[in-house]
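Input record, target 12 of the design panel.
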């Protein structure tokens, strides 16, 4: 199936319930802050779930340089930052997953939470986890996602961009 990039007005996204139950993958502290800052203006009282997701990428056959416990503690700090920024206590959840396939873990989370969308902010930095939204991985997420994938705008004046479905 061919997928097109569609520009959506903020009101169109909110009016259709597209942001009712969202999965928000994060990659690091800077990404968490940037993503939550960009997401906050688009949340309203109709939102039922904001699930902040961090996936610890496990590499088959190699020792990870950082201990799993250190990664979990780091993620907990990012989750606290997200909760403070979003101020969405009733609808806010966090999820820590681990796996060799980041996209598969995001998709599994979306299915388990009956998500209406996966929402991300394009990452500007380089690094292992920032590969998540490189062209190949973004294309995989778009093709495998059970729900729309939405790119958050760079500024408050920009529109949300639905990149799938």
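The sequence produced for target 12 reads:
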């Amino acid at each position: 199936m061919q997928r097109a990039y569609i520009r959506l007005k903020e009101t169109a996204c909110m009016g259709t319930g597209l942001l009712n139950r969202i999965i928000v993958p994060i990659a690091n502290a800077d990404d968490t802050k940037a993503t939550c800052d960009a997401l906050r203006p688009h949340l309203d009282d109709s939102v039922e779930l904001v699930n902040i997701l961090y996936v610890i990428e496990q590499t088959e056959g190699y020792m990870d340089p950082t201990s799993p416990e250190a990664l979990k503690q780091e993620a907990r700090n990012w989750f606290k930052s997200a909760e403070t920024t979003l101020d969405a206590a009733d609808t806010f959840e966090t999820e820590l997953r681990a796996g060799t396939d980041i996209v598969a873990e995001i998709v599994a989370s979306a299915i388990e939470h009956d998500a209406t969308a996966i929402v991300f902010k394009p990452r500007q930095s380089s690094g292992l986890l920032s590969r998540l939204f490189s062209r190949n991985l973004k294309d995989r997420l778009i093709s495998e996602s059970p729900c729309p994938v939405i790119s958050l705008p760079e500024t408050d004046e920009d529109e949300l961009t639905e990149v799938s479905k």
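The chain has one domain: 6-162.
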